[in-house]
Amino acid sequence: MNLTSSIPPLAFRPTVLAIATLCAASAAAAQQASLLEQVVVRGDAQRSFSSRDVQVGAFRDQDPLDVPLTNNVVTREVLDAQGARTVYGALRNTAGVTRSQLSGSTYDNISIRGILVENRGNYRLNGTLPIVNLIDIPLENKDRVEVLKGASSMYYGLVPPSGIVNFVTKRAGLAPVTSIESSVNNHGAVDVHADVGRRFAQGRMGLRVNAVAGKEDIGIDRFDGDRGLLSLAYDWRVSPAFTLKADLEHYRKDVSEQAAIANPPAVAGVLRLPPIPGNRRNLAGQWQRYDAKASNALLRGDFAINDNWMVTLETGRAETERDRRYSQFQNYDLATGDGQLRIFFANGQRYTNTNHRVESLGRFAALGVQHELTVGYTYNQREAYSGDSAPVANVAQNLYHPVAPAPITPAAFSRGSDSAIRDKGLYMVDRLLIGAKWQVLAGLRAADYSNTSATSSYSASKTSPNVSVLFKPDPTTSLYASYLEGLEETGTAPANRANNGEILPPAVNKQKEIGIKTRALGPYLAQLALFQIDRPQTTVDAGNRFILGGKSRYRGLEGSVSGEIGRDWSVIASMLLLDARIASVGAANAGELGKIPENTPRRTASLFAEYRLPQVPGLALSAGAFHVGKRAVNNLNQAFVGSYTTLSLGARYVAKLAGRPVTLQASLDNAADRDYWATAGNGLLGASLPRTLRVGMKVDL
Length: 701
Prior knowledge:
- The protein is mainly beta.
- It has four helices and 36 strands.
- Residues 1-46 have low confidence and may be disordered.
- Residues 1-29 form the signal peptide.
């Protein structure tokens, strides 16, 4: 286990006291040199479709072979080969990932294994800071994107068991980096990206800066906008035993928001879906903006007490604000297409996550067994302001022959409400190394949770266990079995229920998994796992109260392969066979028993490969296929959106121009220009995006 490299960062509006404490500790640490031998830098030298380490949860900087859960890593090389720019663009390479509710014109709402990835808790920066996925998270400054599947409450508190999506930032490597990249697409979008990295102070400090500015266009009607990014990643080896890391990023996006389409009402238990709209059609107006900005900051300090013990302090803050003119098309006639576009107005919505963590990691032997013990405490506060709102506007629209809605300026806005969640946890994880082949991982988390809104409040305390056993018959293969329990929030009763505004108590989810991981077949990682997740769900009782009552069960077989096959091929592939059912229900929802949870496909699969032509040095050709099976539009399974497979093609050529490396690249997404329902869930449908050709050039100076 590499304790040296497990050093991510601490705070937005950084706490002066924390910084002073860390700097004072460096003087006392000058004599300690064994745990923090070097600042480990990655990314530039790693040119592989597979990763040798992960940086998520209690498994920071461990080989995936030593992680007794399903995890996937989308490396920088995969992102570059595909020209990926969005969260979904990266995560489509992992099994079980689908879009939910939104089509991706503003940001990606993601489900994994049919379970929604919560936008304020399940997305993390450098393994720790919960960032807010309500604006497209930029990938230009990221080294890789990791996914830890399933229950993750042990390390991350109250989160649903869909999994953790972790973004690892680029850092300054040993070699200087100066690159300028620009691209355009066939719809008129254009952007420019600068990436600069240097080490200085005799290599003890490093700084990586990324800046992006661009005009947005995704090819749908009445859409335009722009976006920008500025990020800094800094590290400082203060002394042989003390290291600091800091990350700052600010990004913004101001674009037109595509309208969603509401499910039509069911007739005699059957819901007839409208025809799939053309992939360029937008029922909303260009003036209906989604204007958002986000700032994330993280500071981390690692202090080696002696050869075997290290203490980590980190603090961070994530803020997201947005103004929104969201609309959904409803109350329509399938024969004529005439219906109603309902427009919602919100100004100044604000979401803030503040996160602090103190953690001790040590190694010791007891009773003939080697232990790697992690003990920590984390404090997370999530505050939200619902925004100033104006009365909803309803305007006429036609599904088949849409017109541009006239701009609407509300006469007045009314103030919204505040809410706050506090999720505190004390956790302990012990990895027992029994000989060279066996590992046992056991952990407990004691959670202290409270949720307060303008109309209700709730608090709870709960202890969650997990245990895993891992066997390595040789250094290239591991077999494992794991059992985890986690807590998740269950929501607030909506306005149409008798207990409107009541906050429901947290619920316990349970996960079992067995699997195998191996590199024995070549320089690539192959994984196969069987899992079962039991998850409580909400329902409605006979008194029209929104309550916890019922359970969903998700059973699946998941596999993946990533890495290099032979000298000239790189591959990343995944598949999921999922049997998800509503296993028990409340009295008022008897019709849902045995049905498939909404927006949950039975099958997903992806395959992307790049071939480097030996006959033409520097030229690589790529192709990918991404499949999502049919999905129910609601828990009653009254209709299904069809399955679809999209194709991607690409080429990139690396040469030298005036002695400088130059990369020319072209990527084609939705190559067949298919129309399909891309999203379902929450009573909404979303259409696909059109074929997009992007060409670009990168110059390394």
